[in-house]
């Protein structure tokens, strides 16, 4: 006998305070924890196969909470790394960088930005999710409702497009 949709939602509502505490302990941010609890609620309709007991529902809820918190921490870490790398941070300033290298780097950044703007929306989104958010191909495919092979093809297309833009003779 499977749990009904109503039973699943009731289990979520009863477990919500515990999930919230669990996420607060992991993330040390009540607002982020609350956002992730809402994400879990939205994912309840994805629960397949239907669970057979309250224990299965609770296990799924906490597994999703754990995965979402891990993904959040990874995204934050990746964003921090990108900011440290690309923004002028005083503690990481490279005084030895020649002005010519800085100009060349800015030119290349402009070329890549233009190339990215030329990509179809889904192709650009796949590149963003892979390189900026740090998501796996399988996770991107799941999130966008497409196949892993399509993710790989679009990612290769985006990278090749950027590489060709940088290799054009007029640049």
UniProtKB/TrEMBL annotation:
<dbReference type="GO" id="GO:0003677">
    <property type="term" value="F:DNA binding"/>
</dbReference>
<dbReference type="InterPro" id="IPR007627">
    <property type="entry name" value="RNA_pol_sigma70_r2"/>
</dbReference>
<dbReference type="InterPro" id="IPR036388">
    <property type="entry name" value="WH-like_DNA-bd_sf"/>
</dbReference>
<feature type="domain" description="RNA polymerase sigma-70 region 2">
    <location>
        <begin position="16"/>
        <end position="79"/>
    </location>
</feature>
<dbReference type="InterPro" id="IPR013249">
    <property type="entry name" value="RNA_pol_sigma70_r4_t2"/>
</dbReference>
<comment type="similarity">
    <text>Belongs to the sigma-70 factor family. ECF subfamily.</text>
</comment>
<feature type="domain" description="RNA polymerase sigma factor 70 region 4 type 2">
    <location>
        <begin position="111"/>
        <end position="162"/>
    </location>
</feature>
<dbReference type="GO" id="GO:0016987">
    <property type="term" value="F:sigma factor activity"/>
</dbReference>
<protein>
    <submittedName>
        <fullName>RNA polymerase subunit sigma-24</fullName>
    </submittedName>
</protein>
<dbReference type="Pfam" id="PF04542">
    <property type="entry name" value="Sigma70_r2"/>
</dbReference>
<dbReference type="InterPro" id="IPR013324">
    <property type="entry name" value="RNA_pol_sigma_r3/r4-like"/>
</dbReference>
<dbReference type="InterPro" id="IPR039425">
    <property type="entry name" value="RNA_pol_sigma-70-like"/>
</dbReference>
<dbReference type="InterPro" id="IPR013325">
    <property type="entry name" value="RNA_pol_sigma_r2"/>
</dbReference>
<dbReference type="Pfam" id="PF08281">
    <property type="entry name" value="Sigma70_r4_2"/>
</dbReference>
<keyword id="KW-0804">Transcription</keyword>
<keyword id="KW-0805">Transcription regulation</keyword>
<dbReference type="InterPro" id="IPR014284">
    <property type="entry name" value="RNA_pol_sigma-70_dom"/>
</dbReference>
<keyword id="KW-0731">Sigma factor</keyword>
<dbReference type="GO" id="GO:0006352">
    <property type="term" value="P:DNA-templated transcription initiation"/>
</dbReference>
